[in-house]
Amino acid sequence: MRLRSYIPILALFFGGSLLAAESGDLSLDAAIAAALENNLGLRISSLEPANALDSVEIEEARFDPSLFGNTSLSERQSAAASSALDNATTPQSENRRARAGVEKRLSTGATVTVDSSINRSSSNNNAARNPDYASDVGLSLRQPLLRGAWTSVNLAPLARAKANAQRSLFELRSDVLDLVLETEISYWNLAFARADRDLIASSLELARNLLEENKERERLGLVTSLEVLQAEAEILNQQEAIIQADRAIEDAEDALRRAMGKVDFSGPITDSFGVDRLPERIAALRPMDAVVLDTLRNDDDAKAQERRIEVERINRMLAEDATRPDLDLTAGVDYLGRDTRGSEAHRGALRADGYDWNVGLEVRLPWGFREARARERQAARNLEQSELLLADIKQEKALAARTAWRSANAGLKRIEVTRAALALNEKTFEQERARFGSGVVPFRNVLEAQRDLDRARSRYLRSIIETLRATVRLSRVDCTLFERNGLTWDTEATFARSVGSEAGTVNTPDEGN
Length: 513
Known about the structure:
Outer membrane efflux proteins (OEP), two-stranded parallel sheet, 15 helices
């Protein structure tokens, strides 16, 4: 299967087109689309299902018929006559042989061979026919009766390859969801970094206004130089915060670029893009029980592990089969023809002028079956291990769903509390500023009120981003992340258009979820 023909799988995994994000405003949908199209990690992961599909075709090819043929020429000259009946002093003979046929393996484990051969011999000695043509048309069969017998064993490798193909697809789906999660969180992290900088910038502007007021009040003799120095120090503090905020924005931009896979970071980066503002409202959560139930029902990691269990069951069955002795039924019949002309000899074989048939049993019994029995025990333990791992995965996913739900639910409550605290701090600051203007309180009271207001704004902003992250992670856990971003799985179209006739077919995962 060609590599380039499989790359479009990323574009077909969800509904809608993948349009590269241009410089300027970048929507969340465009960022996710660019990530699904360009992310190198996802493109690397997409090669595994392609290899798995080719493994299916390899197993199917084991039942394809194969053609064979051979030809030979030999000559012989004796040193002297060996019989008084010889009419040649030095007998010479020549033998030519050609054989062709077809062999096919059946799902029962049987090997069927149909072949035909013709042999020409000539001699300078006494012979009933010279040249002498002998031809045969035959059918032979070898059918295992114990080890390697019947369809359940012989189709097991094909079933295993199909299960591995399904497993690799579920693992790719999990990688896709992880990438969407990473991209959305990176997107909102950038939105938060810019909102945080805007908040600091507004505090800096307020500090500058207070400095101008204090300078004017100092000129009028209403305040001392101490208040002016305090206002100047506050400006420097805010400028330091601006520097840190700018660095955080650059880091967040690089993280989003890395998820989108559009920049190799080896050269200067001059492009810039805007992102949406952080949402003020976050949707309410579904009940925890429903979230946990959807998590267990739709988790791709658990589905991949279920396919892994199926593979281990097949491995155990094959290991059990290997503990049986080899007992093969062999049978064959050849119809013979003979003449001085090759065409007549061949017609004689088709007329069954002569025949040669055989039937028999062949047995091979390894001493003690030590290796086979040890492999059988390993296969049984591997199956038990996979079943326990599935139970552990489901337990872990259920716990992760409960933890993520509580985190998001606490975040929603925290937003309401920090919003109320912000409103109170805004009123407090305005009152302290008014009292300072009236000369009732010193300027330090205003500074303290401003810092409390800045902290309240920061806590409110952080409550939004942390709740948003928790909500996104919750949607990843309960497998509603695609629905959250307006995407849909389209695996059937993926296989039909990306793989087509270049790889073996395989049942796609159940899309009932």
